[in-house]
Amino acid sequence: MLELLPILSRCARVILACIPSVAFAATPAVQGVPRLDEAARAAHQQLVEKTHQGRIDLYFLGDSITRRWGATDYPEFLANWNLNFHGWNAAVFGVGGDTTQNMLWRIENGELDGVNPKVIVLLAGTNDVGRTPHADVAEEVPKKILALIDRCRAKAPGATIILTAIFPRNDTTEANPVIGQINAKIATFADAKTVRFLNINDQLADQDGQLREGVTMDKLHLSAKGYQIWADALKPLLTEILGPPHPTSRAPTATSEPGAAM
Predict the structure, then answer these.
(1) SS3 78
(2) Please, are residues 180 and 143 in contact by the beta-carbon 8 Å criterion?
(3) I need a labelling partner for 65 at 20 to 30 A (CA). Which of 18, 167, 215, 248 fits?
(4) Cα 88 vs. chain centroid, distance in angstroms?
């Protein structure tokens, strides 16, 4: 019997070698993707430094729609930001032009380390969809957003995530049906506890899905009126989770983004 063991071992190796390797392949995980342009790299470094400044209880993660709300290069929007969020130690971590995977890379590389916010407001996906969505985008984007949520929860396990539905766009006729499909899927990620889903699109857009007059400045980015609609929907949730805002703020100082883009 002992003499047969080497033979059986060799046979087993031959059998395994004949089985296609794809049978053992796992579904590839969503990976963070870095931006290589100099402006985005500078913006990332600025935001990493921001994590060490002041106190951040309310963390906004997103692209240019989020970024512009609390940026010094948009003083009207910054005034609206301060009016609505002063006292909650709020800070913006948005980079113009970011896709969901770009945001994932940023929080994997220092932008959420050691911050421990109590609330993360997440708006992601419009740059993944773009003006002419490809065939699989409605299936792919929810998976990417879920990966981003999971990474936020790993980095900030005590935070409540307020997942905001992707806003409609008036700069294209092709994106809004896809955005609607994505929003229906990501709504299922909410558990009413650690992840809340916030959809204000019926306030921003009409029954045909077109953004209403005055809520956008360029058919995509929100105006002060649009931001106020978002703020009005957020504040009851923030008060529930954080309590009423304090008279003073310890939040980091607002900045502008180097080489700001969409």
Answers:
(1) helix
(2) no
(3) 248
(4) 20
Task: Collapse the DSSP code of 152 into the 3-class scheme (helix H, G, I; strand E, B; otherwise coil) and give the result.
Answer: helix
Q: What's phi and psi for 121, nearest 5 deg?
A: -95, 120
C-beta of residue 42 within 8 angstroms of C-beta of residue 258:
yes
Q: How many CB atoms lie within 10 A of CB 182?
A: 26
Token pair 């940026």 is found at: 71
The three-point CA angle 33-36-42 to 5° equals 105
Place of tokens 């929003």: 183
CATH T-level topology, domain 40-242: Rossmann fold (3.40.50)
Cα separations (Å) of 54 from 116, 140, 178, 235?
Answer: 13, 36, 39, 22
Q: How far apart are the first and last CA of the chain?
A: 72
Angle between helical axes of 75-85 and 224-242 (0-180°, round to 10):
20
Quick check: helix, strand or coil at residue 61? strand
pLDDT digits (tens, 9 = 90+) for 124-183: 999 999 999 999 999 999 999 999 999 999 999 999 999 999 999 999 999 999 999 999
59 φψ region: left (φ > 0), alpha (ψ -120 to 50), beta (else): beta
Rounded Cα–Cα distance for residues 105 and 157 (Å): 18
Can you give the residue ranges of every domain in the chain? 40-242
pLDDT, tens digit (0-9, with 9 covering 90-100), for 196-246:
999 999 999 998 889 999 999 999 999 999 999 999 999 999 999 999 999
Pair 151, 108: CB distance under 8 Å: yes
Tokens encoding 207: 């029954």
CA distance 29 to 32: 10
Instruction: Give the pLDDT band (50/70/90) at residue 36.
Output: very high
Determine the 3-state secondary structure of 167 from DSSP. Answer: coil
The answer to whether the pTM exceeds 0.90 is no
